[in-house]
Design brief:
Layout (H helix, E strand, L loop, with lengths): L1 H12 L10 E3 L2 E11 H11 L4 E2 L5 H14 L6 E8 L2 E4 L8 E2 L18 E6 L6 E6 L5 E9 L6
Keywords: Signal
Protein name: C-type lectin domain-containing protein
GO biological process, one term: innate immune response
């Protein structure tokens, strides 16, 4: 009985993701690097069309922030900024979520020094990369003017707990 319990506990500790081709698995989500440079608003419109229930990538904790930043270094040219699904609304910063789900207020922050800048037009965010180093952080930008690479994200509905 002890061995059966251990087997069940061990299997329940693993999460198996089945991401579509070209997507990278991260815990219970799949992330797709997009190699076209577009505005934040355009990226926001593309991700739901990339895959059902798609949205721009969230970096809601330090571990995921590091993971996505490494994906950017692996997939984009050196010193490339990339858009993330963080925007300003109702006097706070919120993460995008799949259609029909409520946006999540930001808890962790990885702002560059002197950011965010208080402005009515700088309401979207990108992660600013400085070369192929670990120097990077968030900067708020104009969502209709600043072009960059981006990531789409989906929740993996086929994962097994």
């Amino acid at each position: 009985m002890k061995q059966l319990y251990f087997l069940i506990f061990t299997l329940s500790s693993f999460i198996w993701c089945s991401c579509p081709d070209g997507w990278t698995s991260y815990k219970t989500v799949c992330i797709l690097p997009r190699n076209d440079q577009v505005t934040w608003s355009t990226a926001q419109a593309i991700c739901p069309n990339e895959h059902n229930q798609g949205y721009m990538v969230n970096e809601e904790d330090a571990e995921k922030h590091e993971f996505v930043s490494q994906l950017a270094r692996d997939n984009f040219p050196i010193a490339s900024n990339y858009h993330i699904g963080l925007s300003y609304a109702r006097n706070s910063w919120y993460w995008q979520r799949p259609a029909g789900q409520q946006a999540i207020q930001v808890n962790s922050t990885f702002w560059n020094p002197f950011y965010p800048i208080v402005s009515s037009t700088l309401t979207a965010v990108w992660n600013s990369m400085e070369g192929n180093t670990t120097e990077y952080g968030w900067q708020n930008i104009d969502k209709t003017k600043s072009k960059a690479y981006y990531f789409c994200e989906i929740v993996d509905t086929k994962n097994i707990f």
